[in-house]
Structure formats: C-alpha cells, structure tokens
Amino acid sequence: MLLAIDVGNTNTVFGLYEGKDLLRTWRVATRSEQTKDEYAVLLRGFFSMAGYELSEVHAIIIASVVPPTVHALTRMSESYFNRRPMVVGPGIKTGISIFYDNPKEVGADRIVNAVAAFEKYQQAVVVVDFGTATTFDCISSRGEYLGGVIAPGIMISVEALFSRASKLPRIEVVRPKNVIGKNTVNSMQSGILFGYVGLVDGIVERIRAEYETPPKVIATGGFSTLIASESSTISLVDENLTLDGLRILHDRNCEEKC
Asked: Is the pLDDT of residue 228 over 70?
C-alpha cells in the first residue's frame, strides 16, 4: 500500500492507497512542531481502527507547504515504516512544464493538483483549491502549468471579520436561506458565501478570457462542495484531487526512485 501525505497550512491529510484505489483518508490539524513520534502515534491509531498494519505500507510520498514538517515526517517514515519517503520538490519528475517566472515559487500542493487534474481529465483545466488560501491553478490543453491566482481563504476572511469588528460574532460558514439577511449571523453568512462565489466566478471568467480553448473548472479543498453548489463556473468537485496527484507522482517516479 501507498501512504500519501498532504501537509497544508491548516490541515494535514493522510490517504492510504491500494493500487489506484483510495482506501481511507484521515485529516488532522497541521502543527509545525509535531514530532516523528507524535505522527507515528496518530497513524498507528488510525491504522488500527481501520484494521490495517503499518507494515502493509510499502511506499510513502509527501507534499508539504510547511517546511518544518518534512523532517519530522521523513524521520517518522524511516523509523516506523522502514521506508524513505518520496518528497515532492526539486528532482521529482512531474511530467508537466511550469511556465512561471521562478518555478521554485510554485507550492508543492499546486503542482500536485496540476498533475492530477491533467492526468485525470486530459484537457485544459483550472483547479480552484479552497484551502488556507484560495488558489486558482491554470493548466493548458497540452498539460503545461501556465500560472495562477492566489486569494485569501474563506476562513482567513471569517477570522478577520470577527477579530477586527468587535460586535460581529464567529459564524459557521453555511448557506443562509436568503441572500438578504434578517439578522447579523445570516447577513455575515450571506456576505461570506456569496462574496466568495462572486470572487470565484469573476476570477474564472477573467481566466477563461486568456485561454485559447475553454478550460474545465475543478474545485477541491474544504469548502469546494459548498461554493460549487452556488457557482456558475465550477464544473465538478474532486475532493481527493491532491491525494490522487500524490499517487500519480509516486507512480510516475517509482521506476527511478523506488
């Protein structure tokens, strides 16, 4: 089995694969100070509850946007799985050309999403990832990474609204019954949800104008289903796009690095 680890700024997601089949996923809060032993305790518990053994894992791949976690996860892999993990970064064969002024600036998660989107859909694609930041990654019909857009994430905006406006409460991000709110909570929910739908649709329309052929728009990340339900531009939601991208990258590099 393959253990795919996606470390984001807010959450870390573990995915367990048997071939191309995603068997289980687990999500925990990202802590940059997490030790190798703490990661091992978490995974041993997850595996045990799901009826798996750590010894069944034959390979591990990691993508992280939080650099301190890579060392701990690498040591955990070596100590508890007896495996040297593959880490997404320089030296990894992606199979895509990166048309960015400095390709090293592109986050590992964005590269993984681009690889997965083109491999799975085989056409021009825009990936909208609702993570700590909301990112738009643009892939051409030839599988080239063209660049993208980075906007503040939904929860960053919610927390800013709560912390900077003394009379506004923390809210749950859900769809209100109406756009016109009849109380403070509903008004805030409307502003956040429909404001982000407008942001997504507006940016996607501007991106489309720069494409030669209309791209398919894929949403992933925590709020993808909620935003997609109101969006006029998102074609589909692929919740496991990043994990699938890690699996694809592992398979693509396995002959050279396994």
From this structure: yes
Give the start-to-end residue ranges of the domains of the chain: 2-87, 103-244
pLDDT digits (tens, 9 = 90+) for 76-108: 999 999 999 999 988 889 989 999 989 888 889
Look-up: residue for tokens 């301190």? 68
Whether pLDDT at 257 is above 70: no
What CATH architecture applies to the domain 2-87? 2-Layer Sandwich (3.30)
Assigned CATH for 103-244: 3.30.420.40
Pick the catalytic residue from 109, 137, 238, 244: 109
109 is known as an active-site residue: yes
Sign of the dihedral through C-alpha 143, 101, 9, 33? positive
Q: What is the predicted pLDDT for the residue at 258?
A: 57
All residues at 6 or more sequence positions from 42 whose CB lies less than 8 Å from its CB, including other chains: 26, 28
121: tokens are 């859909």
Reply yes or no on whether the pLDDT at 256 is more than 60. no
CA distance 152 to 193: 14
Complete edge-to-edge strand list for the sheet that includes strand 21-29 = 21-29, 11-18, 2-7, 59-64, 86-87
2-87 and 103-244: same fold? yes
